[in-house]
UniProtKB/TrEMBL annotation:
<dbReference type="Pfam" id="PF14024">
    <property type="entry name" value="DUF4240"/>
</dbReference>
<dbReference type="InterPro" id="IPR025334">
    <property type="entry name" value="DUF4240"/>
</dbReference>
<protein>
    <submittedName>
        <fullName>DUF4240 domain-containing protein</fullName>
    </submittedName>
</protein>
<feature type="domain" description="DUF4240">
    <location>
        <begin position="1"/>
        <end position="139"/>
    </location>
</feature>
Length: 190
């Protein structure tokens, strides 16, 4: 699936979610349902193509600086948490996602991050983009096994990085965070 088409589908879901698209809190997050509805309007093969592109997009964010930003924002972040963070970052839209991958410190400018820094409610992560994808496919096909097979086959020959890209530092090192993520460090470390 063309990347512009892919991001266009995400944007259609964001438009359907309205003013809650950038500022979601579970359990009543409208964006996953909106994405399910958008994807359910596609042919099953296109839903599978969306899933493959989603894997590529989230893999592009597999970077140490972004992981350390997630660690600051969420007060800790392991492997599963970073997967959730990247999936949720996708749901914030192309511009926010692209900017955050290039400059994780830019996340300090998001209203939800400012609230989280004050100890108020907020969340960037999302459990898994595979949930709305699978639900949309299930609506059309009545099953998801063929989706799993198609996506696995498409991704089989792709090389998955063993480690995140970019410079790594100890996310609990205040001085390093202030050097690499000064705006986020000011929000979360004072």
């Amino acid at each position: 699936m063309d990347i512009n088409e892919w991001w266009g589908l995400v944007e259609r879901a964001r438009e359907a979610a309205g003013d809650r698209a950038d500022d979601r809190d579970p359990p009543d997050d409208p964006l996953p349902g909106a994405l399910t509805d958008v994807l359910a309007g596609l042919e099953p093969e296109r839903i599978a193509a969306f899933a493959v592109t989603a894997a590529d997009v989230t893999r592009s964010a597999y970077r140490w600086p972004l992981w350390n930003a997630a660690y600051l924002i969420e007060g800790g972040c392991g492997d599963d948490g970073f997967m959730d963070f990247r999936d949720g970052l996708v749901l914030l839209g192309r511009e926010t996602f692209t900017r955050a991958v290039a400059d994780p410190d830019s996340l300090a400018g998001l209203p939800v991050v400012a609230r989280m820094g004050r100890g108020e409610s907020g969340w960037i992560g999302y459990e898994s983009l595979s949930v709305p994808i699978a639900e949309a496919y299930r609506r059309l096909q009545g099953e998801t096994a063929s989706l799993d097979v198609a996506v696995e086959a498409a991704l089989r020959d792709r090389i998955r990085p063993a480690d995140p890209a970019g410079e790594s530092w100890d996310a609990e090192d205040t001085a390093a965070n202030r050097l690499h993520l000064p705006r986020l460090a000011a929000v979360f470390e004072g």
